[in-house]
Amino acid sequence: MSAAAPLAPATRLLHAGAPTLRGGSGPVNVPVVRTSTVRFENSAALADHQHRRAAGERVAAYGRHGLDTHRALEDAVTALEGGHRAFLTPSGLSAITLVLVALLSPGDHALIADSVYSPVRRVDATLLRRLGITLEYFAPSAQNLAAKIRPNTRLVYLESPSSLLYEVLDLPALTAVARAHDIPVATDNTWSGGWFHQPLALGANLSIQAATKYIAGHSDLMQGVVVTDSPALSRRIASAHEALGLTVGADDAYLALRGLRTLPVRLAQHQRHATQVALWLQAQPQVARVFYPALPTDPGHALWQRDFSGANGLVSFAFADGVDARGAEAFVDALHFFGIGASWGGYESLALVAAPERLREHSAWTGTQPVVRLHIGLEDPQDLIADLAQGLHRVSREKAPPAVAEPA
Ligand SMILES: *Cc1c(COP(=O)(O)O)cnc(C)c1O
Asked: Model pTM?
């Protein structure tokens, strides 16, 4: 295949990392190359590989570095995010930890959007604090960021839209402030799967994804990826990646690449279904507010329209007054087609009551009502709506439960 004009993103995504034909033919998909070690023809070839790797080249001198399957996935994700290099990690959380550990040293300060994926705070409390690194959580506006930067601030860490409530950040404004102070910006891009939001083009320097979610797309693997925007950042991430011994199995790399090929069609369908559900939820008396940036009533809608070309399957909603935490749990328990569980991004629907302590971490959240996060899967949306309707009906009936003596 040869191309003169720049390829459209969908075409690039389908062909990035495809195996080259050898002797006139070859498979469509890259083979799964499983290995723990790499064999060399002679000592000189080994030394050559080691030198090239030390100089920053993407060659494997050992199984941990990954071979063809890993390279193909890295190439495809790099193309997807429009970056310089991609680094694979065993989970989304390890991708986040990799960035924090690679870019922060004892005495450093980092500013973290207060609406990020909550386990980031655990990395802070259990690891970074012991290393003498200070993370400060801020309400993620550009103005607030400018006010909080210290002489020792070495990283700004964001996520847009945020976890649970999907607050859309003004990424170009935030990255402009950081750039004026020469501070790198990392952002969690899991929500878009890298497909309808390109943070590196909007000024971020590192884009992180839990490939566990939409890239994999089938709830069958754990994986993370970090994409850098420059050779300098790639070198810093590469050395920490090596030091931490991060690697993923070739089978999982293959599954992630297989998922990636259908990312655009899956996301388009998730968006169609989620939009129908979000609009329906908005009209229900038991629902006070629906969180979905593609809805014109969502506070982040204008920024979403400017910086995103689509939305995913995540829809959260807050119950109207009169439904308490027990009612929210009864609602989730009553659903037939929604699994009760964490994570999202697979083909299937999920429901989870958001923990109030997680919501309170978001400065943008001032509510007191229970919030349910739905992942709208690829089932027929009318079946999902019928299921949600019977769940809400049950909540209405159980609104005022009779007083029951609790066992001591
Ligand atoms: C799930 C998730 C992660 C963590 O990914 P894992 O693969 O589960 O470790 C990170 N960021 C966001 C926004 C997520 O939703």
From this structure: 0.95
